[in-house]
């Protein structure tokens, strides 16, 4: 598939922000981005406007685009919003629990593999896909889009506020395995309680980092 120049710039900069190659507080100039992607400045401006609309950068005329840093307050707000969406989605997705087990088990296996290889970026992607699968199963596309934007912002949070450690990776795997087990056993109360506990722990870790 052929991507437009603006899309290539958008993908390049957004990936850089989410993996912290472009850290919060960095100032990106049109010229530097243009050189990095190998395009003219016009598609750079288009891509940066799109990223500003998503809240990832703030544009300053004749200066460039500032990568919006993540504050501890924003980190907490994002996780609170994520908890609201996921709790609702978990209830709605329960009716698809048999299908969810088949969809989620490979993602837990992927997390184990990435943990063994100490690949934190891939681990985060598998973790995100696990929760996104549950939200998607709720069948509300508006909520699914909102959730994706929250998780993208959380990738920045993980890089700047909460550092992913091997211990946290192990805890996350254990929680995800338990959630799949509750789905398999048909324990709705247990599944919802685990969902709440998993998100509360992430919120507590964020508060502790403030």
Strand content: under 5%
Structural class: mainly alpha
- By CATH's scheme, which homologous superfamily of the largest domain applies? GntR ligand-binding domain-like
Question: pLDDT below 50 for ≥5 consecutive residues: which ranges?
Answer: none
| Residue-averaged pLDDT | 89
DSSP strand count = 3
Tell me the CATH topology of the largest domain: Four Helix Bundle (Hemerythrin (Met), subunit A)
The CATH class label of the largest domain is Mainly Alpha
Q: End-to-end span in angstroms?
A: 43 Å
Tally the helices: what do you get?
Answer: 9
Q: Specify the oligomeric state.
A: single chain
Q: In which range does the helix fraction lie?
A: over 70%
Shape: elongated
User: What topology, given as strand order, has the largest sheet?
Assistant: 1-3-2
Instruction: Tell me the radius of gyration.
Output: 19 Å
Largest sheet: 3 strands, antiparallel
Order of helices and strands: HEHHEEHHHHHH
How would you describe this structure to a colleague?
With 210 residues, this protein is mainly alpha-helical. The protein has helices at 5-18, 30-37, 41-53, 72-93, 97-116, 120-137, 141-160, 166-185, 188-208, and strands at 27-28, 57-60, 64-67. It has 2 domains: 5-67, Orthogonal Bundle (Arc Repressor Mutant, subunit A); 72-208, GntR ligand-binding domain-like (Four Helix Bundle (Hemerythrin (Met), subunit A), Up-down Bundle). α5 (97-116) runs antiparallel to α8 and α6 (120-137) packs antiparallel against α7 (141-160). The chain is elongated and about 60 Å long. It has a 3-stranded antiparallel beta sheet. It contains 9 helices and 3 strands.
